[in-house]
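Section 4.2 – Deliverable D4.2 (structural model, holo form)

The reporting period included a commitment to supply a predicted holo structure for the target in complex with calcium ion. Inputs used:
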Amino acid sequence: MSDKTNEQNPELKAGQFRALTEEEIASLPGSPGNLGRRGFMKMGALAGLAGVGGTLLAGCGRASTGEQPVSSKAPAPAATGMPEDHVAPGKLDEYYGFWSGGQSGEMRILGLPSMRELMRIPVFNTDFAIGWGITNESKRVLGENFPRGGDLHHPHMSQTNGHYDGRYLFMNDKTGCRIARIRCDVMRTDKITSIPNVADVHGLRVQREPRTGYVFANSEFRVPSPNDGRDLDDPKKYQCVFTAVNGDTMEVAWQVIVDGNLDNTDCDYDGKYVASTCYNSEGAVDLAGMMQGERDWAVVFNIKRIEAAVKAGKFKTIGTSKVPVVDGRHGSELTMYIPVPKNPHGLNSSPDGKYFAAAGKLSPTVTLMAWSKVDDYFAGKLKDPRDAVVAEPQLGLGPLHTAYDGRGNAYTTLFIDSQIVKWNIQDAIDAYAGKKVNYLRQKLDVAYQPGHNHTSLGETRDADGKWLVSLNKFSKDRFLAVGPLHPDNDQLIDISGDQMVLVADAPVFSEPHDSVIIPSRLMAGKIKRIWDRKDPFFAETVAQATKHGIVLEKDSKVIREGKKVFVYMTSSAPTFGLNSFTVKKGDEVTVVDTNIDDIEDLTHGFCLSNYGINMEISPQETSSVTFIADKPGVYWYYCTFFCHALHLEMRGRMLVEA
Ligand code: RUQ
Ligand code: CUA
Ligand code: CA
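Output (structure tokens):
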């Protein structure tokens, strides 16, 4: 590899990461060095703490009729100077946002506070732009016969001792019953694991302590066990299992059978417990049935006891799966069922490591439970699991998810009220104990109907209390019309002061459920600017070339093995190593292209006309694709990433003999 300098930053060698300078960091919105302007931007924005009635709409009628709140009680900052989310041209964002892409199946990277979309990372979907689902390298990750799509809900970054560690992002595919891992150094999906014995995978979280460790996944839909045609219409025999996956090997470690179902999940900060909400304790298969009980529950899993049970062989397996499955239904010493009203949804641990909150959804309350009481329960010192509850504040209609600022406050989305409610944890605890205190701090109208919310670093010990995003399911009138399908509206809210201040609306394509917000300084130096030739992502392709005596960095050559043809070529702006190659109709052709340019941002593509093939080949990357040359004739391949003044001339011919 040559020692060329990086063209954009001449002081750096190619591939070196250029971190923000102190000066640049200080100039970013929200930086300590920039507090003057920030303070100046704080406007009144007081929202009324009008009484929260105990009335509860039956279901979410107002949401589905699309009725809107009349006015926003919290206006955006006045147009004096630059808005707080303004990131000047050439400046870098202070935070990364890793955004779920919902049923698009992809993950997205945003910059905060600008809310600019920086990149899309295909995960469960196919993507022609980079050839995800087309290249051999991506198919090795996706597996044989992969479903061509997925419903990605919850991205979470790996942690060490309750701090983000920049190694991996993990996420679920609700429809395809899978979890995926993205390598943060190259921002590429590197493993996808299918979860057995489940009908979907919804809630997902990572172990915080001592590290990730386990990745925990919920199945929400109850099905027969095994789901092989037995007990088809006998819902009493349906079940859900909770799953722990080893985040290093991505193998399923163990599963736990539960009563009811499992919705969202989160774990503690001590590595001892993980908890999930259940909204279908009724075991119903219709809407009315699932809303029958006034309470459902949160179920807590005792990780050490489950590991011990598995080790002692106290498990079974289901169907053809070899995964150990333990029984955690009522009466088991592995679990604790804490009654919670009503059809609870989000489950969120507080960054002080003390509490976890279940949002009531059909109850106007959030139920706050203490991990220390869970300790007491498993030690036999607490008889009634309900005594783990330390607060149950009344917040408003349709509480779904709660985020934290690290200063003792919690922020809960109210789906039906279209609001974020800020409340104080200690005051809520005192009120539950009978003191006369107002735990409500502010209600902020959001537009409209929020699902998840997320604070910067709020799911770690480092919660910094700067930003909150409200991931709103409806945008209605907030953007230019684009057809009957509307974008979602992700709103950026400044929470650094006493009052929440709405800062920006950001339209997003369906349907981000969840996101994590991570300081860019934490990722500094961790993200590669060009590929390493030894990268495992294409190691198998390199090994195959070596068997053919090919040195990918210099050889451009065709090798035939019977009806299999291997076409090796380099790419270097603005030429492919092969100007043409010839195959016969019916040959199985494998094109292996290596980008030998080692200049940052100099990506090539290989697109083969009329064959439905395109792939990205970034600097120092090798990409390959295998197809049947089933149409005789001349087929041009051309470069799809603008790489040079003669980019259009970067092309060649595949000649297919009849
Ligand atoms: S959970 S808001 Cu997957 Cu709430 Cu979507
Ligand atoms: Cu290579 Cu465009
Ligand atoms: Ca229920």
